[in-house]
């Protein structure tokens, strides 16, 4: 079993001006002369975290983390009262990754991402294949309507009926037939007495369902007010727009990645992004190696998941 590499501190951090009034936070750690790798965080609307550095051997990799538009340490933060999400879209973020790649003078990099990070990695690689040397993807999410229906419109309620009551609680009963839409109204209400509890309920639902076993400290972290508001607002905004994808687009176009070495890591008991999406991706892109972990949920910290991710980054390092 492999576990995290030791903690490592960045030797470079910065805010990159990407236009539209946005500055994105980035940091570089590991070996400055190593193989470039970038980690794409989840959500959308999550954040980078120091543990994400630790899936890479710091002696072999030049490790880049970034906070996507509107979240983490990027500015402005989507929890701000005047937050405007109109220029936060998949394709803006894809171009931000390209801007950062050029800013750091990287020719091509290994792209690692889980969950929404896997969707973003696929979108980026399909748009800019020459910039991607390898892909390591986990907990595959592609924003198809069927995936959103599963997690946000009631599918997963069959597994977590208790937690589901908390998710629907802020929504007036007559609006519960279309929860993403109802939440859009709540999360964009200017009154913090409306949008903060809604954001916390949204974030509690999601963070409670990402580990195989309950992890209250993780839930507490992801339901902290500012994090929850940015996370819920950005996720909901993306889901209202289907991620600016055609239904099935990322999987349909995955055949274009056949020459990019790739590993797909999927937990069998992932209740947030169920295994069918990883399977559909594997069918469309058989050259990528699929590692189905029999006893894991969604989060990258699940033991079997972490092990498989690090096995892949170690293999691609040499
Ligand atoms: N969203 C899946 C995702 O990327 C559909 C994700 N879920 N929870 C997270 O990310 C956090 C770990 C950031 C809470």
The overall strand count is 8
Rg over C-alpha atoms, rounded to the nearest angstrom:
18 Å
* Arrangement of strands in the largest sheet: 1-2-4-3-5-6-7-8
Mean of all residue-level pLDDT scores: 97
* Sheet with the most strands, sense and barrel status: 8 strands, mixed
Class inferred from helices and paired strands: alpha/beta
What pattern of helices and strands is seen along the backbone? Answer: EEEHEHEHEHHHHHHHEHEH
| Low-confidence blocks of residues | none
Identify every distinct bound molecule in the structure, by name, code or SMILES: ligand STX
Gap between N and C termini:
19 Å
Total helices: the number is 12
State the helicity in percent bands: 25-40%
Task: Describe the fold and architecture.
By secondary structure, the protein is of the alpha/beta class. The protein has twelve helices and eight strands. It has helices at 50-53, 90-103, 116-127, 145-152, 161-168, 179-187, 192-208, 216-222, 225-240, 249-252, 276-284, 303-317, and strands at residues 12-19, 22-30, 35-40, 61-66, 109-114, 132-138, 262-267, 289-293. The chain has an eight-stranded mixed beta sheet, sandwiched between helices. Strand 5 (109-114), helix 3 and strand 6 (132-138) form a beta-alpha-beta unit. Helix 6 (179-187) packs across helix 9 (225-240) and helix 7 (192-208) runs antiparallel to helix 8. The site of ligand STX has 11 residues, from helix 7. Residues 42-43, 46, 115-116, 141, 206-207, 210, 222, 272 line the site of ligand STX.
Give the key terms.
about 325 residues; eight-stranded mixed β-sheet; 12 helices; about 15% strand; globular
């Amino acid at each position: 079993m492999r576990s995290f590499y030791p903690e490592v501190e960045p030797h470079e951090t910065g805010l990159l001006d990407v236009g539209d009034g946005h500055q994105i936070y980035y940091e570089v750690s590991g070996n400055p002369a190593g193989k470039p790798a970038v980690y794409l965080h989840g959500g959308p609307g999550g954040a980078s975290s120091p543990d994400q550095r630790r899936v890479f051997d710091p002696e072999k990799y030049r490790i880049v983390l970034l906070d996507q538009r509107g979240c983490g340490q990027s500015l402005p933060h989507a929890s701000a009262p005047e937050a405007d999400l109109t220029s936060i879209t998949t394709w803006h973020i894809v171009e931000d990754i390209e801007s950062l790649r050029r800013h750091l003078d990287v020719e091509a990099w290994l792209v690692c991402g889980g969950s929404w990070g896997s969707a973003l990695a696929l979108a980026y690689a399909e748009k800019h294949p020459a910039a991607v040397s390898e892909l390591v993807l986990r907990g595959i999410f592609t924003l198809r309507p069927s995936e959103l229906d599963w997690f946000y419109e009631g599918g997963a309620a069959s597994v977590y009926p208790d937690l589901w009551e908390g998710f629907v609680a802020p929504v007036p009963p007559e609006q519960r037939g279309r929860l993403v839409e109802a939440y859009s109204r709540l999360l964009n209400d200017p009154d913090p007495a409306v949008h903060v509890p809604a954001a916390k309920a949204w974030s509690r639902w999601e963070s409670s369902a990402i580990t195989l076993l309950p992890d209250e400290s993780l839930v507490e972290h992801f339901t902290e007010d500012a994090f929850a508001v940015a996370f819920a607002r950005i996720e909901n905004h993306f889901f209202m727009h289907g991620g600016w994808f055609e239904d099935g687009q990322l999987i349909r176009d995955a055949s274009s990645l056949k020459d990019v070495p790739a590993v797909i890591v999927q937990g069998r008991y992932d209740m947030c992004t169920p295994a069918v999406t990883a399977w559909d991706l594997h069918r469309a892109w058989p050259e990528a190696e699929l590692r189905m972990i029999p006893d894991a949920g969604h989060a990258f910290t699940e033991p079997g998941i972490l092990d498989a991710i690090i096995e892949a980054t170690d293999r691609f390092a040499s």
